[in-house]
Design a protein that fits this description.
Layout lengths: L7 H12 L2 H10 L4 H5 L2 H6 L6 E2 L15 H18 L8 H25 L7 H8 L8 H11 L11 H4 L2 H23 L4 H23 L6 E6 L5 E7 L1 H9 L8 E5 L11 E4 L13 E3 L2 H13 L4 E5 L5 E2 L4 E2 L6 H5 L8 H6 L7 E12 L5 E9 L11 E5 H7 E7 L5 H4 L7 E3 L10
Parallel strand pairs: 4-6, 5-14, 9-12
Antiparallel strand pairs: 1-10, 2-3, 4-13, 5-6, 7-10, 7-13, 8-9, 10-11, 11-12
Helix pairs in contact: 6-8, 6-10, 6-11, 10-11
Length: 455
């Protein structure tokens, strides 16, 4: 009978490999009781990093903090929206209510899940199949995609944070999410049994309505009751008193925000270099949405170079750029740096850490979009041919002002190529051939595709 597991010969070769160079013993002595990244950190990279940029959007206060929640996609959008809004209203400091959009996303996403699950039951999907397993794993997660923001903002509008402040369960979402997941899975079972028993569509809809009454109750108890009408009183930079309202949240967006930030004019441009995922094509992901009957999440696939060119155009016009990336790779949150040369794995462990291509990382579950932030600046140099070459990017995060450069990160251009997957660009900057892609019938990727990852 063959020896199970690692053989003695294999183990001997592993031990010989470790003992072959005394630097590995030194590395062991240094790392065994410490965070490896503290030892791997390249001081040369830290020393050459500076947070100065020749193209930068005017920065505003305060630096936001999503705390213990997955709401980065909401924070990044509202941080982009507030910059032109604050300029228009001559404000010193301002935040939109993140809790307000979060509330309505939870409500709408719950309804979307129930309808999606009923649809899969009608289609004969089995509970142990890959699709239903995926849907049941995260029926109402915190994260999202930009087109989901369009759904919520266009329907419910936006309001100042003073009119609907943060709730504890918005800043620490775990307890609420556990309850919502538990109940939604229970309702999914009930819907499946109704459909399996051949009950009428009216019976199915009645069950969905009953479920939503209970779901809404949980959400409103945890997050508070969003206002139907608001009155916003404030002082501008000149200390003059101003008042807006009473007005509905939707009218507040339509009348006071949309003229400087029309969310529906933003287009999601992605970089998906996997074989068969062609540039110049329109993509969507099955069951990726937060609103039943709402706008689909649509992606125009383009080379990374194109994403950067459009981002540069936006920044030069003082318009920040919402973007999605795999933030944890080659990142120091303490120093506020995203740089491929930040950690020297090869020196310490004798192996490179980023040997795969971007496409290979997507294919082998090594990378996907995990976080959304805001590009607010670009550092460029003149290339040998006289063209402007992008070197680094200024990034506004939503983790408070005690991380990085008072809440901002520096992202190198090389890191952008490897780990940025999506940017949202206003239509006015896009070439006609890129806009024309939106007229295509989208290619539908499976629900579990990495391009459907939620920031």
């Amino acid at each position: 009978m063959a020896t199970a597991g690692v053989t003695k010969d294999q183990l001997a070769r592993c031990k010989d490999g470790f003992c072959s160079d005394p630097k590995y013993k030194l590395a062991q002595n240094a790392i065994v009781n410490h965070d490896p990244l503290e030892i791997l950190l390249e001081q040369d990279t830290i020393q050459k990093t500076n947070h100065c940029y020749n193209h930068k959007v005017p920065e505003v206060k305060p630096v936001t903090n999503q705390k213990n929640s997955g709401r980065c996609w909401i924070f990044a959008c509202l941080n982009a929206m507030r910059i032109p809004f604050m300029k228009l209203h001559n404000l010193e400091e301002f935040e939109f209510s993140q809790n307000y959009l979060f509330f309505w996303d939870k409500v709408e996403r719950s309804l979307f899940f129930l309808h999606a699950y009923a649809e899969t039951a009608r289609n004969g999907e089995e509970p142990d199949g890959r699709l239903l397993n995926f849907l049941l794993t995260g029926p109402v997660d915190d994260g999202g995609q930009f087109d989901m923001l369009i759904n919520i903002v266009e329907k419910y509008g936006v309001i100042p944070k003073k009119c609907f402040p943060e709730a504890h369960n918005a800043e620490a979402t775990r307890r609420m999410n556990v309850m919502l997941r538990c109940k939604l899975r229970e309702y999914a079972l009930r819907l499946r049994l109704l459909i399996k028993d051949g009950r009428s569509e009216q019976d199915v809809q009645s069950e969905i309505d009953r479920a939503m009454t209970e779901i809404y109750r949980i959400i409103v108890i945890c997050l508070g009751s969003p206002p139907e009408m608001i009155t916003w009183e404030y002082h501008d930079k000149t200390k003059a008193y101003r008042k807006v309202g009473p007005v509905s949240p939707k009218d507040f967006y339509e009348n006071y925000v949309k003229s400087v930030y029309n969310i529906s004019d933003k287009v999601c441009i992605v970089n998906d270099p996997r074989p068969g995922h062609h540039y110049g094509k329109l993509y969507t992901v099955d069951y990726l949405n937060n609103m039943h009957g709402g706008k689909k999440c649509l992606y125009v696939n383009q080379p990374s170079k194109t994403l950067k060119e459009y981002a540069l155009k936006s920044i030069k016009n003082d318009e920040p750029v919402w973007f999605g990336c795999d933030v944890g790779k080659a990142c120091s949150w303490k120093h506020g740096i995203n740089d491929m040369d930040l950690y020297n794995y090869e020196l310490v462990f004798g192996v490179p850490m980023f040997a795969m291509t971007k496409a290979e990382r997507l294919e082998y579950c090594e990378s996907m979009m995990t976080h959304a932030m805001l590009i607010t600046g670009v550092g460029t140099e003149n290339g040998s041919d006289g063209e402007e070459v992008m070197c680094k990017w200024r990034v506004e995060n939503s983790w408070g002002d005690d991380k990085g450069d008072k809440g901002y990160l520096m992202m190198t251009d090389k890191w952008f190529d490897e780990f940025v997957y999506e940017v949202t660009i206003d239509k006015k900057y896009l070439a006609p051939e890129v806009l024309a892609v939106l007229d295509q019938e989208p290619i539908v990727l499976p629900a579990w595709d990495p391009m459907g990852a939620l920031a």
